[in-house]
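Hi R.,

Here are the chain sequences for the assembly we discussed:
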Amino acid sequence: MKSKPVYDTLSLDPSARQHLFIAEGDGVNSVARAAAVAGGNASIRIFALAVPSRPLPAGWCASEAPACTVFDTGHALTAALVRELRLASMDTAVYVAGRERFLWDMHGLLLREGVASTRISMEPAGSFARKVYCVHCSAMNADVTDTIHVCGGCGAHLTVRDHFSRPLGAYMGVMVDAEAPGEIPPAQRAYA
Amino acid sequence: MKTAGMRLVRVAAVENITSRVKRFTLVSADGDALPAFSAGSHIVVHLSEGRESETPSGKTWRNSYSLTSAPGETGFYQIAVRREDAARSKGGSIFLHEAVRVGDTLQIEAPANFFPLARQARKHVLIAGGIGITPFLSYLTFLKATRADYELHYAFRDWSRAAFAGLICAEHGNRSQFYVSAGGERPDPAEILAGHPLGTHVYVCGPYSLIDAVVRSAREAGWPDRNVHFEEFTPAPAEHSMPFTAVVPSAGAIVRVEGGQSLLAALENAGLGIASSCRVGRCGTCELTVLEGEPEHRDRCLTDLERSSGRMLACVSRSRGERLVLEVATA
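And here is the predicted structure of the full complex:
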């Protein structure tokens, strides 16, 4: 499936000189790894979003370098990110680690703020539960783990496809029984 | 040789812009409306000394010129042609300056664009050297009309050679900076590129040395490659070109390519129609397959893999040896 995202393992972009890391939940581990490899010479800034179910490791962001800020809410992170990007220079690269829906929320924001798509790297971490877009009623269904999901917007039984929309940051959900109404195969757990 | 999209236009006006630059206004001569085009587009003008459209009796040229008129204007096109020195050009611009008059008809190809604006850019920085200002004229019209954030840096020898400077001052003066080389002023790419916000795109058109300096400077300043755009009017300078023979078995043709002549032009003159567009080694339209012989690649389009699998561009690339055997896809 061509649209299914292919992700990176975060590593410093050699063509850039300013490096901004954004971590959510389990993504902090990926960011810590990538930032450590970078060493002391690189100009690095880290934004981390604490997730209720995933407290940050002890001592995270405790030292002065690299410069690091922890946010409690997505709104606070977003606001700070926009301020940071308005002042950023053209030699900036951005690296995002966290759950898939977080990656694409950030991706959209970064593009809107002028970051080139070739300067955005993403590494998924934590749950692979999907955000599913119902093509019938346009509702977004969060945290879907099974192959068939009942849409929260219209009640349709949706088969969760691998077809992914970058602007929506969601996978496509289409009625599984469109051809034969009522014939619904059993759901299976597919992505945790 | 007719190419799809060819149309007949009539010269409605010829204006002297500077002592070396003339602007030609072209209107439709066959009753069809002229197509609208995107900012940065060019047309290829087919010129012929003999005035016979099917069997030219004299020299022929196919020259590419940026459309300087407004992208939304479909009643007429305008191109600005700088007269090149006879010693350093094939003569198409000289022919336009000396032999083409109001009322004459010309064959042109439909507009194509290898130098489009990045529509998602938050800011546009334009850098023009000499006649390289021409693609930016349609840019400026569009950017102003859409209230975009833009700035122009225009370098030229002296004010008498600054084509369209008056128009630019009047319409875009508050967003333009001029550099007069006769007065020692030269654009400094590093300075021009410093301090722009994320999402800025830079576009450069002019002498090869200017393009090279800007591209290098952008890379050194850490700009992503996709935010840097350039258009060349002539291919990057190459060493002296040796003549060679091009053999095209499928057409039963054996064509001599002279030292000062491109493979593309030689094949066209021999009656083989090769699809082409930019004619400076950027777009890939004139690609050929090499069956035998070793090509000398001078393009900025094909990847190493494509070159090693026997592909070459006819408009700029040549032969390392005496002979190339080629397969062409006729237009």
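The helical segments of chain B are 92-99, 134-145, 165-172, 189-193, 208-220, 263-269, 304-308. The first strand of chain B starts at residue 7 and ends at 16.

Let me know if anything looks off.

Best,
T.
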